[in-house]
Amino acid sequence: MSKSDKIYVAGHRGMVGSAIVRMLQNQGFENIITRTHNELDLTNQQQVQQFFSQEKPDQVYLAAAKVGGIFANDNYPADFIYQNLMIEANVINSAFKIGVKKLLFLGSSCIYPKLADQPMREDVLLSGYLEPTNEPYAIAKIAGIKLCESYNRQYGESHGIDYRSVMPTNLYGPGDNYHPENSHVIPALIRRFHEAKINNSKKVVVWGSGNPKREFLYVDDMASASVHVMNLDKEIYNINTDKMCSHINVGMGKDLSIRSLTEYVKKVIGFDGEISFDTSKPDGSPRKLMDSSKLNYMNWYPQIQLEKGLTLTYEDYLSNSYNIL
Ligand SMILES: NC(=O)c1ccc[n+]([C@@H]2O[C@H](COP(=O)([O-])OP(=O)(O)OC[C@H]3O[C@@H](n4cnc5c(N)ncnc54)[C@H](OP(=O)(O)O)[C@@H]3O)[C@@H](O)[C@H]2O)c1
After folding, report:
1. CA 35 to CA 13: how far, in whole Å?
2. Cβ–Cβ contacts within 10 Å for residue 26, how many?
3. Does residue 316 have a pLDDT over 50?
4. Of 71, 88, 93, 137, whose CB neighbour count within 10 A is largest?
């Protein structure tokens, strides 16, 4: 592809979409198009079709989605399944109709069964029950993968299309959501330790035992993996995937306990008080780690280790006054 190809990044104001835009700009792509949610509601079929007919992009990164934590997923299941299904169906179908040959869909590790063997390989998809709290969201994400696969199967040869999917592990980095009740673990810890530091508190209480193990990837690594997968040679992609199991895991390849994560955050923030674990609060699954060896085999590895990523994230937190939320 050429550096002047027109690339549409859907969801460019989100944490992942903005990192993809930064990555493409750094790599010299000069024709990136974006629309805010207000300018283009991706759940609206007519608006999406009109946008694609006017702009005719060459490539699409689909990083727009209705995203939220456990509370939001549990309380607004209809919004999560409806909006995500509509966004995916509208974007993928409209892209196909105007002749987009290459599209990358971003899913999530919650597509895998709750009790999947660890680390989770791509082929455990649809082999068991999902986690009930985010099942509607996960079903929509699975539908996104299946949309890409079905368009490839029906039109891949006749129309030369190649739509791919990546499944990120837990992400963190600049532009994260620091909402006090609705954020993921890293931004929630950053906020709590930062507030404890500036209030001279002696102790930070962390929910759960600290024993569960989780995997975290810095968002710029996710963006580099996305651009890498989008541009992988078709033969290499096809050898490493299957027509009906075509998605690729993107993770760090290693996990750590919430207790260790908490120690890292404490150090990066410079809090010198105590940490205590509130074991009356639920722990969730003991372990969630993705098997990213397929992507490693296709020559992609993460570059940013946790401590460096946390430092960059905290710098972004301080410079953007997210703490004023
Ligand atoms: N963050 C993670 O840890 C993580 C982990 C795994 C997978 N992912 C996946 O990565 C993708 C991006 O996540 P993110 O963390 O970047 O989420 P995010 O920060 O919430 O960004 C999502 C973007 O999508 C836009 N959007 C939502 N509904 C829209 C609509 N109807 N029309 C137009 N734009 C719409 C949002 O705009 P508004 O804010 O204006 O609505 C926002 O800019 C998602 O598919 C998510 O599942 C994220």
Report:
1. 9
2. 12
3. yes
4. 137
Ligand 1 centroid to Cα of residue 67, in Å, is 5
Residues 249, 298 contacting (CB under 8 angstroms): no
Listed in sequence order, the residues at least 6 apart from 75 whose beta carbon sits closer than 8 Å to its beta carbon are none
Instruction: Please tell me the residue having the least CA distance from ligand 1 atom 21.
Output: 14
Indicate if ligand 1 lies below 6 Å from the C-beta of 79: no
Q: CA–CA separation, 215 vs 112, rounded Å?
A: 15
Written as six digits, the tokens of 35 are 């629309």
Q: Closest Cα partner for 80 from 126, 12, 131, 21?
A: 131
The full DSSP string for 42-91 is TT-HHHHHHHHHHH--SEEEE-------HHHHHH-HHHHHHHHHHHHHHH
Active site residues: 137
Least confident of 56-65, 189-198, 274-283: 274-283
Strand order of the β-sheet with 59-62 is 32-33, 7-10, 59-62, 102-106, 162-168, 248-250
Beta bridge partners of 106: 166
**pLDDT given at position 325:** 47
- Going by alpha carbons, the residue nearest to atom 13 of ligand 1 is 16
Give Cα separations from 250 to 217, 237, 320 (angstroms).
8, 14, 28
142-197: pLDDT as tens digits? 999 999 999 999 999 999 999 999 999 999 999 999 988 778 899 999 999 999 99
The verdict on the CB of residue 246 being under 6 Å from ligand 1 is: no
User: Does ligand 1 lie within 6 Å of residue 43's CB atom?
Assistant: yes
Could you tell me where the DSSP H helices lie in the chain?
A: 15-26, 45-55, 70-75, 77-97, 135-159, 185-198, 219-231, 234-240, 258-269, 293-297, 306-320
| Cβ 186 under 6 angstroms from ligand 1 | no
Q: Is the dihedral of CA 162, 165, 171, 174 positive or negative?
A: positive
**Are the C-beta atoms of residues 42 and 90 closer than 8 Å to each other?**
yes
Cβ contacts of 305 within 8 Å, gap of 6 or more = none
Chain centroid to CA 205:
28
Q: Which residue has a Cα nearest atom 37 of ligand 1? A: 37
